[in-house]
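To whoever is on call:

I kicked off a structure prediction for a single chain this morning and the downstream step that reads the tokens threw a length-mismatch warning. I double-checked the sequence; it's 451 residues and nothing unusual in it as far as I can see. Pasting both halves so you can look.
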Amino acid sequence: MIQEGGLRAPERKPLNLDSKNFWDEKDLDKELRRQFDVCHSCRRCFNLCDSFPKLFDLIDESETMELDSVDSKNFDGVVDACTLCDMCFMVSCPYVPPHEFAIDIPSLFIRHKAQNKNKVGIIESQISKTDLNGKIGLNFSRFLNWITDKNNKFFIIILKKIASIEINIRLPKYNSKNFFNVIKKKSLSLNTNRENSNKVIIFSTCYVGYNDSEIGKALIKVLDKNNVFYEEGYTECCKMPQLEQGKVKEVKNAAEKTAKKLLSKIAEGYKIVAPIASCALMLKSHWPLLCPDNEEVLELSKNTMDIDEFLFDLHNNGKLNLDFKSINKEITLHTACHSRAQNIGSKSYSLLNLITNEKNVNVEKCSGHGGTWGIKSKWNKTAKKIGLPAARQVFKKEGNIVASTCPLAALHLKDINDDKKLISHEDKIYHPVELIANAYTEGEYDEKSTS
């Protein structure tokens, strides 16, 4: 008897990289067709992203208007349009495992990307090397931030020619110093009792370490206010950019190395806390899928928390410092796809409701950015189209403070606002932890322009 799977918790099957079938092109094509046929019969995801419309157009414009007359070479475009947001698996599809149809489009597309990883160009591959780029960026931050500024038309045009990066977009800036070392130095001077307090390892992520130290400063301020003992535990990039390029073995190796280094701290009672949603998702979900037999990776997964999840857990246990100076403005929060895919609920929204006197707004729509996907000339127009419904809700009301659980989504949403001129909003789109940190001190927020 066939049962709908929508009311049961999704049960994702691991990716067996050691299986010959995983790397077999014919077996992949057979599975693509099997799952695509189910999608074709359902079409619930027609407006979720650009992959599904592309698939349905291929079928509708084929000779038989069925999948049997679609050439497999055309599947490449369907896969390329996927940003691995995980929303089709986590939110939309009623046929995910344990349903017998076992539909898992993101995992299927990772497999396709893995078989085609050699097609990734040298420049595209270099862009994804966030650690290497970050180290270079720290040493030449002033120069590189000037070159990549969206108002620097001459160099932006050159960047488009060389790297196929779209003109008139905001790119992440580089810190002037390594923030990993700041956390290490700060942790050495803590007065918090290590044995009798909550203990966390900050997996600070390459974005906080290299690109936006303000998030890191806010994070340690909030932990200090809550007497949380912390240490710095960043090892290397979570490899989300490499996963998007199908470099699954590289991701697996990074997962195993990081888990081995952090396991001793977990045994001492530490939780691993990540301030960036995409990185938390990688440690929690994608690493175990690639390393299903590695007990260290599985243990790391169980003990990793998104920063907002960790803080709300403190609140649930009566341990969160509630000595806030309320912010007298309404906050519009964009809850990014990689926050939602963690299946932890709207923890950021619940926390922000503790620091305002107004009724806040939570927008749960995809920004369309997709990491390195949305900055490419080939996809930027589509990325903005996908993100426009979210931007319309985020920038619905002038005067609101705007926050997002994804800093890259924040930059992209501001670009959409610039293009569509939805409202006048020059302030930074904040990470929720920045607003929480400010509520502990000023009860106001610092206006930092990112235009």
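Update from on-call: the warning came from a stale cache, not from the record. Cleared it. Sanity check on the structure: The two ends are 57 Å apart (CA to CA).
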